[in-house]
Write a structure and sequence with these properties.
Elements (H helix, E strand, L loop, with lengths): L2 H18 L4 E4 L6 H9 L4 E4 L3 H15 L3 E5 L3 H4 L2 H10 L3 E7 L26 E3 L7 H19 L5 E7 L34 H9 L7 E5 L7 H12 L3 E3 L15 E2 L2 H4 L3 H6 L4 E5 L6 H8 L6 E5 L12 E5 L2 H10 L8 H18 L9 H11 L4 E5 L3 H9 L7 E5 L9 H8 L6 E6 H6 L4 H7 L3 E7 L15 H9 L6 H7 L3 E4 L3 H13 L3 E7 L2 H22 L1
Parallel strand pairs: 1-2, 1-3, 3-4, 4-6, 5-6, 7-8, 7-10, 8-9, 10-11, 11-12, 13-14, 13-15, 15-16, 16-18, 17-18
Helix pairs in contact: 1-2, 1-6, 3-5, 3-16, 8-12, 13-22, 14-15, 14-21
Length: 578
């Protein structure tokens, strides 16, 4: 068997096994050393290949696909610094639990560490940020080696999805020649249609005695809180609201919790706790007897203050598999169980928890007061919070909002109120970086369902080259670009008082007319200066096929003052009610 046929059969068996294990989308960045993988993937009848030139963008694009679909997505790049450009997205995927299968092509062993071009140290390149690493054998086409390559392929998909999902890396050393021969008969071999080493994994569930033990710890405690942080399980909303109704508890729902939108009951959901917790006196009034949290730590910094100020109350954190996402360092009982099954189990135990009706009524009253101020009529100039409020009003049913970090996600936290619309809220809140946001939003758009990306100007600038993906694949996406000409979140931090250095080091204005960049990539551009005008142009963008960018220009100082005036008015009325 000649070297080309060996290479072809080895690579085809690996790629085919990815497909058999459910991989349908693979993102490829062009390069020479990755030729065997790239061409074989493009040839496979059941895999959709996406070509993204910039590896950093490619990795975030793959992550957006995986977040939206819930399935593992593979990445392919050539050797050298191409693989290093994946690093930011791999870090994010690790912390936000997104399944990626990273396939890095490499020079063969004899060309490493001798000064050969595009030969860097790629073994375990991503360190502990991947769940599993495998240095693949050089291609062979014996029966044993084709079995080997299929086993590794199947295991890669399993490891990416197992438990808390995350990225894995397989490093492929290839010798010349690199071009496969697809005229070979039985290219995908005569293997069974079933995946190799098929695995079945169940969900974690506590025993009845374990559930009773947890409930016994809540005896005599009527001022409980259910907190739902960032998570993606669409079934949790129904399950957790049933527990809240049975126990008479308020639910503090993060904007990324998937609880603020949908048809489930929302009478007990408190969306405005970030604004409520801004005042220390109010936080002191709202001391709980216990907290049960689902999902990651909420976005809200005032909530972090609240938890820190209540270190000695019982706190339970529910994780579907494992994990210790509790940054306060408080004494916490971690419950490793599927969240929906845990909620259902709580309701099967014959236990009626003590209820403090005044506690629940206080929360509901405070939520109404805060919403009244946050929903107050807009002024002459459109603010960032009002832009988010307008978006939620007009966004189509069954949409996804992909929200950027810094001010964007915080404004969503404050101004995204409960709605019967079916909305999926996505974000890159693992490492909370601003990089790769456009790429991630475009990845979520591949399904064809409406996607609106909400980002600030620095995030938009940071990932401008990703707009090529929208042009290349004619993806439908609306980008709500909130442009305050710099890092608006720093205006709320102590650094803002350092006037000598603030603008250069933190404000960082870029002074770019983004309209030209949008048009360069064939997108539709519009801007709005009032809330009603914004609703109109957003509505128009959803009728447009392809890329639409709607820009709202705001002033950082005005925006900071506006937010603080809202928080002050809320605090004053709440303290008057106390």
């Amino acid at each position: 068997m000649n070297p080309t046929e060996v290479l072809t059969r080895y690579t085809a068996n690996f790629v085919d096994e990815l497909s058999k294990n459910g991989v349908t989308d693979i993102v490829i960045s062009p390069g020479s050393r990755s030729t065997p993988l790239a061409m074989t993937i493009a040839e496979h009848p059941d895999i959709k290949e996406w070509i993204v030139i910039d590896e950093r963008s490619a990795a975030f694009f793959a992550m957006g696909i995986a977040k939206k679909t819930g399935h593992a997505v593979a990445l392919v790049c050539t050797s050298g610094t191409a693989a290093a450009n994946y690093f930011p997205a791999i870090v994010e995927a690790n912390y936000s639990r997104v399944p990626l299968i990273v396939l890095t092509a490499d020079r063969p062993h004899e060309l490493r560490d001798i000064g050969a071009p595009q030969a860097i140290e790629q073994l375990k390149l991503y360190g502990d940020y991947v769940k599993w690493f495998q240095e693949m054998a050089l291609p062979e086409a014996s029966e044993n080696m084709l079995s080997y390559v299929r086993n590794k392929s199947a295991r890669a998909v399993f490891m990416a999805n197992e438990g808390n999902p995350g990225p894995v890396q397989l490093n492929f050393p290839f010798r010349d020649p690199l071009v496969p021969d697809f005229s070979i008969e039985n290219l995908w071999s005569n293997q069974s249609s079933d995946p190799r080493n098929h695995t079945v994994e169940g969900k974690k569930q506590l025993s009845t005695n374990q559930i009773i033990s947890i409930i016994e710890k809540l005896q005599g405690k009527g001022r409980g809180l259910i907190v739902c942080g960032p998570q993606t399980d669409q079934e949790l909303a129904q399950a957790v609201t049933k527990v809240a109704e049975a126990w008479g508890l308020p639910i503090l729902a993060d904007p990324l919790s998937q609880l603020r939108a949908g048809e489930h009951a929302k009478d007990l959901i408190v969306e405005t706790y970030d604004a409520i917790f801004r005042d220390e006196r109010i936080r002191n009034k709202l001391r709980p007897d216990y907290i049960i949290r689902f999902g990651a730590m909420p976005v809200s910094k005032p909530y972090l203050f609240y938890v820190n100020e209540n270190k000695h109350i019982p706190q339970f954190v529910v994780e579907n598999y494992t994990g210790f996402r509790e940054p306060t360092g408080n004494n916490t009982e971690f419950i490793f169980s599927d969240a929906v099954l845990f909620c259902n189990s709580l309701l099967t135990i014959e236990y009626t928890p003590e209820q403090d009706k005044e506690w629940l009524e206080d929360w509901q009253s405070m939520n109404r007061i805060a919403k009244k101020h946050l929903l107050a009529e807009a002024g002459d100039e459109l603010t960032e919070g009002e832009a988010v409020r307008a978006l939620v009003d007009v966004i189509p049913e069954s949409s996804s909002i992909y929200v950027g970090n810094s001010m964007a996600v915080r404004d969503l936290d404050t101004f995204f109120f409960t709605t019967p619309k079916h909305l999926s809220i996505l974000a890159n809140r693992g490492a909370n970086g601003i990089d790769g946001m456009i790429s991630s939003g475009l990845g979520a758009a591949i399904t064809g369902a409406p996607v609106t990306l909400v980002v600030g100007d620095l995030s938009f600038y940071h990932d401008l080259n990703a707009l090529l993906i929208a042009k290349q694949y004619k993806l439908n996406i609306t980008i709500l670009l909130i442009n305050n000409n710099g890092g608006g979140i720093f205006s709320f931090l102590p650094q803002s008082q350092e006037k000598k250095h603030f603008e250069v080091l933190f404000g960082t204005p870029v002074d770019i007319e983004f309209k030209h960049a949008v048009q360069m990539y064939g997108g539709m551009y519009a801007s709005a200066g009032t809330e009603e005008a914004l609703k109109a142009v957003l509505y128009d963008s959803y009728q447009h096929k392809g890329l639409s960018v709607v820009e709202v220009k705001t002033d950082r100082e005005t925006n900071t003052s506006w937010h603080r005036s809202k928080w002050k008015a809320i605090a004053e009325e709440l303290k008057g009610e106390a």
